[in-house]
Amino acid sequence: MSIKKYLLFYIISTCAIIFVSLTFFFLPLKSIDSRSYEVLHTISQYGVITNKDEWRNILELTRYGRKVTNVDNLNTLVYVVNKHSSVKQISSDKDMDNMETLKLPSISKYEDLTIINIPSVYSNDDNFSIKYASKLTDLIEYTSGNIVLNLSNNYGGLKEPMIIGASSLIPNGMLFSNINNKKEKYPVYLKNGKLFGGIPGTINELNLYKLSLHKKKLGKKVAVVINNNTASAAESLLLALKNNPNVKVFGMPSAGYTSVNLGRFFTNQNSDNYWWFVYTVGYYETIKPIKGK
Asked: CA dihedral defined by 84, 90, 92, 95, rounded to 10 degrees?
């Protein structure tokens, strides 16, 4: 072999070795648990990062998540960069059930007042979401006199069944705007009992809530009761209701957790469990706690 051919072979071989080494360094192997890397990579691309200096330190110290194998430690890290983000390990059907809140809206009485209680709703079952929205729609429809909505201790969950269920009290049109991690604005609209717009992927665009729509009741006086546990999706309902000038808010300031979140499951071929990752991709344009009177 001539010297030139030998040098060429040596250079090509060296470059190939370097390329493979870099590939193994920067891309986690699927044969090991790469979920921590995938979680941090998702945040880097789409997430809202409230402390960028701390985020850079985390990436450096953990080698972009490669050194993190404990889901509890990972949960602590994602909470540091955004308090609305979390990671949970799901190891059984019971763990999955514990993530869901399957309570329907209800009626309670206080002296002469009829109060409509609107609870949190966390569910992967579209049928339950439809049932929730239908129940809320009917309770509002068949309540005589002025309306009292109780959102206290509603931690949020799915905004669609809440807003669509109360849509007879909300004017059609733009409700509010979402702001993504690039400061881009995405308006959210209500029309004919359906939600449109928002940051891509954050609204159930299947529009499965095929309800018997009732006529708008925008002339009725509506009192909304909140406290400092009124958060997230419940605050989005509150923002939507405030487009109606006949809506008045009473109680303590809300939690101020008006974040726009997405959820995603991460699996690994060498593990029977999977991780449920919730991350913040934006905020509502109004991010301050909503005050009652």
From this structure: -10
What is the rounded CA–CA span in Å between residue 219 and residue 174?
A: 19
Residues 74/64, Cβ–Cβ less than 8 Å: no
If we measure between CA atoms, which residue out of 21, 275, 237 comes closest to residue 121?
A: 237
- Whether this model's pTM surpasses 0.90: no
| Residue-wise pLDDT tens digits, 158-197 | 999 999 999 999 999 999 999 999 999 999 999 988 899 9
pLDDT (tens digit per residue) in 137-163: 999 999 988 899 999 999 999 999 999
Strand-pairing partners, residue 261, are: 280
Q: Which two tokens stand for residue 211?
A: 């309800």
What pLDDT score was predicted for residue 92? 72
CA distance 70 to 88: 11
Instruction: Provide the residue type at 43 as one letter.
Output: I
Six-digit token pair at 262?
Answer: 């997405």
Tell me the C-alpha distance between 132 and 115, whole Å.
17
Q: What tokens does 190 get?
A: 């209500």
